């Protein structure tokens, strides 16, 4: 084993696909790219609600909108949008109307004012459930209040950031459902 810089440790724990976060504030919408999030509670057990923890800091244009409105949408893009996802993450909503600049379609959500992204595989409408860790860690706890998916979407492979500018694309699925005896709610 070789020692690894602590600043690179997260690269081995990236939890899931890169997502887009939309916000709406003062008549303006924004999209940001995010890969720092975690599932806190999946909502599959005893009627609990899905909770997601995500890190959005004051350096992000979306921070003020999320703090003020308490709402956002987490949209899950697929590999065909990978280049746009990276470009969205490399510019600021202070300077760019990202929906327009990247040819994405905002769709009205049902329970929040932030828009869904029509081109994405899934969209999760969220409200801030707990902001007690924002000042210290820039960590928002979001409650998913409505979820959408596009069953007609042919491309379903998501992208995962390695933390160094490279990405992994979902590949072959391995079916181990019959071995999930302890966690049948996940099958």
Automatic annotation (TrEMBL):
GO terms for molecular function: FMN binding; oxidoreductase activity, acting on the CH-NH group of donors, NAD or NADP as acceptor. This is Flavin reductase family protein. SUPFAM superfamilies: FMN-binding split barrel. The lineage of its organism: Bacteria, Pseudomonadati, Caldisericota/Cryosericota group, Candidatus Cryosericota, Candidatus Cryosericia. The keyword Transit peptide does not apply. It comes from the Bacteria. InterPro entries: Flavin_Rdtase-like_dom, Flavoredoxin, Split_barrel_FMN-bd. Transmembrane segments: none annotated. Keywords: Flavoprotein. Pfam families: Flavin_Reduct (PF01613). Its cofactor is FMN. The keyword Iron-sulfur does not apply. Residues 11-167 form the Flavin reductase like domain. Belongs to the flavoredoxin family.
